[in-house]
Structure formats: structure tokens, C-alpha cells
């Protein structure tokens, strides 16, 4: 009688943020609805953060170093439609800014509560930005992004690309 996990049903029928997605072409327009839902659902977001933090905390010391934060920063960049780290100074600047958000501009490690708070802020901003300028996702590759935005109906495997600015 238990529902299979990840089948939260909420995703059913609310696929309007995915305006169009087709297996052969593998692209879709995303407007941040799912990100917003994740952040607003306190329980789901807490468990997401727990999971994410554990995954990022490679040395299991309960804090995230700058290096350990890097994958999270890259995922956020991907969600923003940025090109990969190192591909341009202007996008690298944004990556640095995101990292600075996490560390509050200090070169220090980040606790779980700080990580959660900043992630929530950043994701809310990302969702607001996406609402204004939906991006086209092309075969998403980041696993985290998958967690953020996919329902069981869609398989994205790489991100990206054009964003209406
Ligand atoms: Ca650590």
C-alpha cells in the first residue's frame, strides 16, 4: 500500500513549467516552479539539504570547505544556465560570487545550518530568475539539477544553454 518513493504525486499534472520536452530532442523550458516548490516544502528541503551536505562533506567533519562547496556552486551555475567553470571570466565571476554567498565572503568552512540558509536564498533567487526568464534545458547532466527539477517523467542529462536575456 505504500507509495513508491519519489512518487510524490504532486508532480502529476503540474508539468506546466516543462513547456515542452521530447525524447528525441531532449530539451525543455524550465521556469523554476519545481525549485520553488522544493524550497517552500520545509520537510523536503531539509531532507534535501541533509542528503546534499553529507554528499559534499567528503572528509565527514561536519563542515564544508571551499573545495567541498565547489560541486554545489557548479550545480547552481548550471541551473542558472552558466557555461562550465573556467570557460569565461564573466561566468567565473558569478561562480565566485555564489561561493562568496556560501562563505559570507570569508575563507572559512561552512556549517550545515549556514549551508541550508544560503542554499535556500540562492535557490529562491534562481527560481525567481527562472520565472522571469525561463531557460531551455538541454539534456541535463548534473545529478543535483536532476534532483532539483525533474519529475519521474522526464530524464534530463545535461544542462543548458540558451537563456533569454
Ligand atoms: Ca568537510
From TrEMBL:
<dbReference type="Pfam" id="PF13499">
    <property type="entry name" value="EF-hand_7"/>
</dbReference>
<protein>
    <recommendedName>
        <fullName>EF-hand domain-containing protein</fullName>
    </recommendedName>
</protein>
<keyword id="KW-0106">Calcium</keyword>
<dbReference type="InterPro" id="IPR018247">
    <property type="entry name" value="EF_Hand_1_Ca_BS"/>
</dbReference>
<feature type="domain" description="EF-hand">
    <location>
        <begin position="44"/>
        <end position="79"/>
    </location>
</feature>
<dbReference type="InterPro" id="IPR002048">
    <property type="entry name" value="EF_hand_dom"/>
</dbReference>
<dbReference type="GO" id="GO:0005509">
    <property type="term" value="F:calcium ion binding"/>
</dbReference>
<dbReference type="InterPro" id="IPR011992">
    <property type="entry name" value="EF-hand-dom_pair"/>
</dbReference>
